[in-house]
Amino acid sequence: MNNPWRLLLSKPARGVWNMAVDEAILECVGRGVSPPTLRLYAWEPACLSLGRAQPVADVDIPRLQEHGWDLVRRPTGGRAVLHTDEITYAVIAPQSEPHVAGTVLESYHHLSAALVEALNLLGLEAEVQAHIGKTGRNPNPVCFEVPSAYEITFAGRKLVGSAQARRKQGVLQHGSLPLTGDLLRILQVLTFPDEESRLRAAGELQARAITMEEALGRNVSWNEAAQALTAGFRTT
Q1: Residue 190 in contact with residue 200, Cβ under 8 Å?
Q2: Ranges in the chain, pLDDT < 50
């Protein structure tokens, strides 16, 4: 019999709060005082998050401050994400939980089925990215620029970006689903060798990533997306 999971629908919060809550849940799950958890949340104000090992030098701090956007480091890997106009999910469970069992890629593959089901419920035929990209250093600091293995795409463009952290006390997987807005905004607060490189990155990002609004041709509210994600994880 499957262990019961807890669903948390959180109010929008600052980036440091969101990351601290996920860390606290991970610690409590590992100690056995909290059940495996699916948490859905938003960010207010907009926040740039860096992957666990990404250098802060990738960020143009003065430009970030001009926009009034926050900066935080995620406990998970990957590259920079601008969290705004999106819904974020966090799957947090002990290592013994069957739904996160196996290798990182195996658990990615398993959890991606729930994400695809959620998108199907919203009327979108999404796909699971099957191949693993190049392992060499990619100078582009943007997470959504290139799909990774078992991430979710639509028409070949990345729709859901996910990253995972594995610790002794458990597993934390984050993922972002952009609902609307201009995905190129992130490039305004990242450093590039020159403006030509920034423009080239803009073209690549435009071609390789997509929002729900662009994919579906209609607006999807946070609440509608939350209901679909809840149903996708519950049934899948």
Answers
A1: no
A2: 1, 133-138, 143-147
Query: If you count DSSP H runs as helices and E runs as strands, how many of each does the chain have, helices first?
Result: 6, 10
Q: Which two tokens stand for residue 12?
A: 């929008």
| Mode of pairing for the β-strands spanning 152-154 and 127-128 | antiparallel
Q: How far apart are CA 31 and CA 28, in angstroms?
A: 5
User: For the segment 174-228, what is each residue's pLDDT rounded down to a tens digit?
Assistant: 999 999 999 999 999 999 999 999 999 999 999 999 999 999 999 999 999 999 9
Which residue in the block uniquely carries the two structure tokens 């600091």? Answer: 141
Which residues are 59's β-sheet partners? 190
- Catalytic entry in 143, 172, 183, 226: 143
**Angle between the N-to-C axes of helices 222-235 and 104-121, in degrees from 0 to 180, rounded to the nearest 10:** 120
Q: Are strands 47-50 and 70-73 parallel, antiparallel or unpaired?
A: parallel
What is the pTM (predicted TM-score) of this model? 0.91
76: nearest Cα among 213, 175, 157: 175
Is 28 a known active-site residue? Answer: no
Please measure the distance between the N-terminal and C-terminal CA atoms of the chain and give it in whole angstroms.
15
The CA–CA distances, whole Å, from 142 to 136, 138, 196 equal 15, 10, 16
